[in-house]
Design goal:
- The protein has one domain.
- It contains five helices and three strands, in the order H-E-H-E-H-H-E-H.
- The N terminus is likely disordered.
- The radius of gyration is 14 Å and the shape is elongated.
- It has a three-stranded mixed sheet with strand order 2-1-3.
- The protein is an alpha+beta fold.
């Protein structure tokens, strides 16, 4: 198995083992900054995108390490080391369904 496939499998297993959104950062959540809301165009509906555009950009959501590693294009090990020494933060370079769900739960569902 190639090193890249093994790393992807490890990141995926971390994502499934990570705690639910809404728990504190000490439990394995990473702050993901989203400066370009168009990253979520394929994952949110037009009303959700419009509501997100009304927020002050960049926005930040907390997601499991595996999700953050995927959308920020950074190693899960790097984020885990950041968590051990305090907060872990990265900037989203791509979108995903998991990131969109976190945005919806943490930012948009409060805006009714």
């Amino acid at each position: 198995m190639s090193k890249r496939i093994m790393m992807a499998a490890a990141a995926a297993s971390i994502a499934f083992a990570a705690p639910a959104v809404g728990q504190n950062l000490g439990s394995g959540l990473v702050n993901v900054q989203i400066g370009d809301v168009t990253l979520l165009n394929n994952f949110l509906n037009n009303d959700q995108i419009a509501a997100l555009n009304n927020l002050n950009i960049p926005v930040t959501v907390q997601v499991p390490i595996g999700v953050a590693a995927n959308v920020c294009d950074v190693s899960a090990n790097v984020l885990a080391k950041q968590l051990k020494s305090g907060d872990a933060t990265c900037t989203a370079k791509s979108g995903s369904q998991a990131l969109a769900q976190s945005v919806n739960k943490q930012l948009l569902s409060q805006k009714k």
